[in-house]
Amino acid sequence: MQKIKYKNYNPKLKEECGVFGISNSLESSTLTALGLHALQHRGQEGCGIVSYDGKNYHSEKRFGLVGDNFNKEKILKNLPGKFAVGHNRYSTTGSAALRNIQPFFADTNAGGIAISHNGNLTNAITLRNKLVKEGAIFYTTSDTETIVQLIAKSKREKTIDRVIDAVFQIQGGYALVMIAQNTLIGVRDPFGIRPLVIGKLKNSYVFTSETCALDIIGAKFIREVENGEIVYVENNELKSLKPFPPKKIKPCVFEYIYFSRPDSILNGKTAYEYRKKFGEELANEDKIKADLVVPVPDSGNAAALGYSQKLGINFDLGLIRNHYVGRTFIEPTQKIRSFGVKLKLNANKSSIKDKKIILVDDSLVRGTTSYKIVKMLYDAGAKEVHLRIASPEIKFPDYYGIDMPTKKELLAANKSVDEICDFINAKSLKFLSLNGLYKAMGFEGRNNSYPQLTDHYFTGEYPVEIVDEVGNDKITQLSLLSANSNN
Ligand code: AMP
Q: What are the two backbone dihedrals, phi and then psi, of residue 328, each rounded to the nearest 5 degrees?
């Protein structure tokens, strides 16, 4: 386990995304658009689809939501062929240029390849610098292009062997879906930090981030791609390779806590079931009496329900959500983010007036959401607001593809629970304990010698080495071309 020193993390290469790929379907691009729509929560900055028609590849990339872009027959007609791969890109402070929207397409010596990537490589800049020194030309500022360059550079003949060559060189948390001629390829990192699942629809196979993208197209969920596994579909047959030395899986705990859609299945249960259990366990660790349990919608819904059922306290909707705004957290500046909470939520005066309330959310990151909501509830007449968070204190940043701020901005990294409670102006504050989190997931507790999950957010234990020197000035500008250039 590695404990690392933090400078200011440079999020330039960050990708927190949804991926989808399908083989052998006459409706490949339409089904990909639907799959991406179901994965919209994984990224809203941009979306793209690349299809393969047996001879040529076709690419369409857009800023914004899938439903606003891939909604017309005209655009889907530009994407013919039986193979398609798609991508939703998450908004980060990195370059928002169109050229950074995936899938990336490249002509290689072994033919064309289109790639979608969810996750973050921890040695991408190191590899990129080496490749640039050797003469490689980079078009984007994304770490995904490093993978493309490694595949293109491999001396192996078959694309699948080139992919193996490439994944042996990269490190981090990643899930990749590619099409290379009539082959659909999926890769999950050696610890299975990022999710990837396999589905089947008639004669087609689907590789995608979450099972909700299978449900929307009526595909059957076959299984998760295993950690360190490469799966591919050739001549309609699903094949599997395990080129890495075997390791135990260690999925990212934040997929369970927040990121995955509640109806998606993670290790045999829906994210919803886990979140409800987190709420129940939080209640087990608590003794408070109150009039109401109020969720922060939608992120705290399942945990609040579990909490209220466990303690037998009424559950009520004390906050009403406007569904026509995206996730507040992803707005790129703190100023917009603070405003965003008000855009999204309003207090439901009739249910909270003069009540002692337990407010439940899934996680506390910068504390902006909680601060605003507690104030909102008091302004609307609540008697007492007690905040309960259905995960432990987040003290360490992420390097594997979840959008987390620097240590400086993480509230729990810099304040004690009592100080956070004061800052937020809540009457009391409790977080789910780390062992409670593991218990809620069906473990006896955290196995400290081999943690069952990637949980560095709470512990600072990073399963994959961070090779790139984060915060190094030398890497802050990856491209001299300005981000807004129309290129
Ligand atoms: P904050 O206001 O910074 O404390 O953020 C906490 C809120 O953001 C909670 O309501 C979470 O559901 C949500 N959240 C937590 N982590 C993330 C993330 N990585 N991306 C987007 N939203 C998040």
A: -65, -35
